[in-house]
Amino acid sequence: MSIRIGFIGLGDIANLHIQGLQRIEGADIVAVYDLNRDKAVNAAERTGAQVMDSAEQVLDPERIDAVYICTPQFARGNLEETAALRGIHLFVEKPLGLDLGEVRRKEKAILEAGIVHSVGYCLRYLDTVQQARAYLQDRKPHLIQAYRFGGTHPAEWWHRLDLSGGHLVDAATHQVDMIRYIAGEFSEVEGKFGRVSFDRMQSKGTIYDAGAISFAMEQGAVGSLTESCHSAYHIASDVKVFGHDFFIHLSGNGFGLTIVDDTGDETFTSALDPYFEQSKAFVEAVKTNTQEPILSSYSDGARTLAFTLAANRSAEQLNPIRLSP
Question: Are 187 and 322 spatial neighbours (Cβ–Cβ below 8 Å)?
Fold first, then answer.
């Protein structure tokens, strides 16, 4: 059985998905669209797909069974709802948007349509992350520490807070999601952000160059996440989980895992391609018309987004934000 797949948005992340799909038997990319037609033509040449003149043309249930929506978060419009209403299975890149009310409305349409839905939190598919999650199932941490440091995105829109949401919403969201996935839900968040370097070097942008976010978890743990998208000399993306009788360290975006407890000190390294594993699960889910293989649903993506948007709102209001269960 072959699955006919369309792509809307053909930036760097979309190309990683395409590379993964090309390794999967029965995954046929048949229609592509991007505002930049050269990108669409390039993707079509590599996949044999047809270049469409609009996103609307891609979202034709006579043409495709599933769609990858990889447009920037500010440029989604009603694509998800259109796909859901037409019975087209849906993969959406993270973050899901910048307006939680709009995302919740889309979530309702997707769930009511009964289509398969997946969100691009690919790190959940790493075997190291799965191992950490399994280890924590019957253990209660008391402290969680996370951080993500690195460079900026080259696109001009990314440097506008109203279009990207900033580094936390767009990139460090992976660390937020990893914490949720392995350790449970957040109950409260407080964010503080600064623009020391950007104010001096980039007057037109509005995103922050650093953030310090504190949080509480439903199970009682507390923690922090620090992030910077203006760190040229130190790049790291880690999550550390502390318990009274254990310590877990997911390093390098989850590709490395260290577990220390009374039984010893073990380190594991993942050799998986999370983009491939994620697409393999999505294709299998579409073929079998079941949500079961999917590790990050649209609802999961909405909950991770809710945390990051609340952190931004907390910084604006200068107070902690309680998160809905």
Answer: yes
**Token couple for 56:** 């609307």
Domain assignments of the chain as residue spans, ordered by start: 3-120+275-294, 123-273+306-322
| Tens of pLDDT, residues 19-54 | 999 999 999 999 999 999 999 999 999 999 999 999
What 3 state SS string does the chain have?
CCEEEEEECCCHHHHHHHHHHCCCCCEEEEEEECCCHHHHHHHHHHHCCEECCCHHHHCCCCCCCEEEECCCHHHCCCHHHHHHHCCCEEEECCCCCCCHHHHHHHHHHHHHHCCCEEECCHHHHCHHHHHHHHHHHHCCCCEEEEEEECCCCCCCHHHCHHHHCHHHHHCCHHHHHHHHHHHCCEEEEEEEEECHHHHHHCCCCCCCCEEEEEEEECCCCEEEEEEECCCCCCCEEEEEEEECCEEEEEEHHHCEEEEEECCEEEEEECCCCHHHHHHHHHHHHHHHCCCCCCCCCHHHHHHHHHHHHHHHHHHHHCCCEECCC
23: its two tokens: 């390794």
User: Which residue type, as a one-letter code, is found at position 11?
Assistant: G
pTM reported for the whole predicted model: 0.97
Q: What topology does CATH give the domain 123-273+306-322?
A: Dihydrodipicolinate Reductase; domain 2 (3.30.360)
Pick the CATH number of 3-120+275-294 from 1.10.8.420, 3.40.50.970, 3.40.50.720, 3.90.870.10: 3.40.50.720
293-318 pLDDT, tens per residue? 999 999 999 999 999 999 999 999 99
CA dist 140 and 298 (Å) reads 27
In angstroms, rounded to a whole number, what is the distance separating the alpha carbons of residues 251 and 265? 15
